[in-house]
Amino acid sequence: MDFALTADEQAFAAEVKRFLVEHPPERFAADGMDAGYGSGAHSRPFLRALAEQGWLSMTWPKTFGGHERPMFFKLVLMEELARAGAPFGPLPGCWQTADAIIEYGSERLRSQVLREIARGEATFWQGFSEPGAGSDLLALKTEARRDGDEYVIRGHKIWSSHAGISRYGLVFARTSREARRSRGFSMFVVPNGTTGMDIRPIRSLTGDVYHYEVFLDDVRVPAEQRLGPEGEGFVALLNGLDSDRFWGRFYKAPALERVLHQLVEYANSTMVRGAPLARDPLVRRRLAGAAVDVAALRTLFYRVACLLRDGAPITYETALAKVLADETGQKIARLGMDLLGLWGPLRAGSPWAKLDGQIAHLYQTTLGHTIAGGTNEVLRTTVAVRGLGLPAAR
Ligand SMILES: Cc1cc2nc3c(=O)[nH]c(=O)nc-3n(C[C@H](O)[C@H](O)[C@H](O)COP(=O)(O)OP(=O)(O)OC[C@H]3O[C@@H](n4cnc5c(N)ncnc54)[C@H](O)[C@@H]3O)c2cc1C
C-alpha cells in the first residue's frame, strides 16, 4: 500500500492551502461548539465557502452534479482543514448523507437535498439513540406509521448532536412490528421545523450545547423522504455508522497533530525551576509517545481509506480505527492536562488560561468520544468477533 499523494492530490492540497490563506478560518463565525480538537466547529458561512469551491460535491457522479474526483481528494481536503483548525464540523455528516441519498434516495431527495448539500445549505443531525435504546439500538420505540403518501412519526430521540442548528434530521424509526427484528426499520430525512417536532437543548460538561433531545409528536413526512425501501433502513444505518466512524474521525490524526505541536511549543517555552519543561525526561518521553500514537493513527486511517477506495469488504476495520482514534484523543488530552498542571482546568476566558483554555475543552469533550457512534466496549466486541473470530458473548 502506497500512502504517498499522487501529483493531482498534491496539487489539490496546494489549492486547499491557498484557499485557507485567502479565507482565514478564524474569520468565520461558528454556530456550534467544536468537537474538542480546536477544530471541527459548526460554521455555516465556512461550509458555504467550501461549497463555492465545488468541494462538497466533488466526488459525486456527474449525473448528480459532481465532478467524479477520486475519494482521496476528500481525505486531502479534510487533512488540510484539520491542520489549519478550520470549522468544518458539518462536513462528514454532509458527505455521509449525500452518499446515502445517491445510493438509496428518491428522486425528490436527489433533486432537492443533494442540491442543498452541494451549495453548503443543508446540514444534518442523526436521530438514532433514544432514552431506552443506545448500544441496543433495535430496542428503539419511535414508530413511523404509513398513512397514504405520508408517514406519521411518533417518538423521542436523545443525544442528537447539533439537532438544533441543522436543517434536517436522519430519523431511524420502526415501520413494522411483524418483520424480522432488523428488517422492520426505516430511515427518514425529516426537515427541522416540521409540525410536531420539538427540539430541546441539553447542556454538556463544557457548559456549551452540543446535544439535543427531539420529541416527535405525529410528525408527517412524505414517503419520498424515506431513504431506501421500507424496512431496509438497518442497512442504511449500518453503512451510515461505518461511514461516521471513518469520516467522522479521519480528521483526528491531523487535528491531534496540531494539538501536539501546541504542547511541544508550550514545553519548549515554559520555564520550570530555571529550565524549559521540555528538558524533563518524562515530558519528552510522553510527547514522543504521543507522536508515535498520532503517526500510527494516521497510518491506520489511510489503510482503511485504501480498503474503502478499493471497495474491499469492511467488517471490523472502522471499529478498530474508531477505538484507536478516540482513545488517542483522550490520551493526548490527559497529557495536555498533565503538562499544564494547575493551569490546565482553566477555561477560555480566564485571564490565566494557557493555550486559550483549549486543553480543558479537549479534555472534557473527548470523554464522550468513546461513547459516541457506538461505545468502545461494544466496538471491541466487533473487533473480537469479526476481526479475531472469537465467539460472540452470550
Ligand atoms: C458526544 C456524543 C455524541 C453523540 N451523538 C449522537 C447523535 O448525533 N445521534 C444519536 O442518535 N446518538 C448520539 N449519541 C448517543 C450515543 O450513540 C449513545 O450514547 C451510545 O450508543 C451508547 O448508548 P447509551 O448512552 O444508551 O448507553 P448504553 O447502551 O446504555 O450503555 C451503557 C454502558 O454499557 C455498556 N454496554 C452496553 N451494551 C454492551 C454490550 N453488549 N457489551 C459490552 N458493554 C455494553 C456500554 O459500553 C456503556 O459503557 C452521542 C453520544 C455522545 C457521548
Could you walk me through the main structural features you see in this protein, from its secondary elements to its overall organization?
The chain has 394 residues and is an alpha+beta fold. The chain contains eleven helices and nine strands. It has helices at residues 7-22, 44-52, 72-83, 91-104, 107-118, 233-247, 252-269, 281-309, 317-340, 358-369, 376-387; strands at residues 124-127, 143-147, 150-161, 168-174, 185-191, 197-203, 209-222, 271-272, 275-276. Strands 2-3-7-6 form a four-stranded antiparallel β-sheet, with no helix packed on it. Helix 3 (72-83) packs parallel to helix 7 and helix 9 packs antiparallel against helix 10. The longest helix is centred in the C-terminal third of the chain and has 29 residues, at 281-309. The two termini are 38 Å apart. The model has no long low-confidence stretch (mean pLDDT 93). Bound molecules: flavin-adenine dinucleotide.
Sequence of strands across the biggest β-sheet: 2-3-7-6
State the total count of DSSP E strands: 9
Tally of contiguous helical segments: 11
What ligands does this structure carry? Answer: flavin-adenine dinucleotide
Helical content stands at 40-55%
The pLDDT mean sits at: 93
- For the terminal residues, how far apart are their CA atoms? 38 Å
Low-confidence blocks of residues: none
Name the shape in a single word.
Answer: globular
The structural class is alpha+beta
**H/E element order:** HHHHHEEEEEEEHHEEHHHH
Oligomer: single chain
Q: Outline the biggest β-sheet.
A: 4 strands, antiparallel
As a whole number of angstroms, the C-alpha radius of gyration is 21 Å
Task: Estimate the strand proportion.
Answer: 15-25%
